[in-house]
Specification:
Rossmann fold, 38% helix, globular, 234 residues, six-stranded mixed sheet, 2 domains
């Protein structure tokens, strides 16, 4: 579904992502894990068309989307749920959700999609007329996920969804990620929370200093001595 080949991104003279190559197949949860500053978010922003790439190729469902503007990429069904949630705090929960359904195919199905989001996240239905900024951190993350689903995506890239959440809610979040996947949405999961991400995914990649250094199934990576020592604190 998504093929990224030899992606290279620079900030000025600094290379942030070095010839990164990976793939996401239909129906999978694929995790990219690594420490803060490893290049995870840069890679995802490049795929989304938010930042310019220096070289490489991005193929989505057989179509070369390299260099396309971000709104065209969203129209094709590839969306990003950004790090830090980026909800509109002064708008209500329902208004935030409606803003997620601006694509041509999503507008006509807005009502039924919102009902599906409310069934997945009942608390959002209860808080529908409430200002989004008044929600707890976990509820705001649910809203960010729901807003992304409102566009009827084919593939969702989730950038650090567990960041800043309480330990109790982190486990609940990864259960939600699995539920969204089971409902038919393919997921690329970008995470510093290595243990939960690799437990949740089908396959994973480790990125270090802008380079993919390892890949394999989630179970294989969880058993790897380097991953255990560097990321699992064992």
């Amino acid at each position: 579904m998504l093929e990224v080949s030899e992606l290279r991104v620079k900030y000025g003279d600094v290379v942030a992502v070095h010839e990164v190559t990976f793939r996401v197949d239909e129906g999978e949860i694929v995790a990219i894990v690594g420490s803060n500053g490893a290049g995870k978010t840069t890679a995802v922003n490049a795929i989304s068309g938010l930042i310019r790439i220096e070289s490489g190729k991005i193929i989505f469902q057989g179509i070369n989307i390299t260099g396309l503007p971000s709104h065209d990429i969203v129209e094709k069904g590839l969306i990003q749920i950004p790090e830090g949630r980026k909800i509109f705090s002064d708008l209500t929960v329902q208004e935030n959700l409606r803003l997620g359904s601006y694509t041509s195919k999503a507008k006509g199905k807005r009502k039924e999609t919102m009902e599906r989001v409310f069934s997945l996240f009942p608390v959002l239905s209860d808080r529908g007329r409430q200002k989004a900024g008044s929600l707890s951190g976990g509820e705001q993350q649910m809203l960010a996920l729901g807003r992304g689903l409102m566009s009827l995506p084919i593939l969702v890239m989730m950038d650090e969804p567990s960041l800043g959440l309480s330990p109790m809610f982190v486990n609940q979040l990864f259960e939600m990620v699995s539920m969204i996947n089971e409902m038919g949405t393919t997921i690329l999961l970008i995470e510093q929370n290595t243990a939960n991400a690799l437990n949740c995914c089908n396959r994973g990649y480790v990125i270090e200093n802008g380079v993919i250094t390892m890949n394999g199934s989630g179970e294989e990576l969880l058993r790897d001595p380097h991953v255990v020592e560097a990321y699992l604190g064992v």
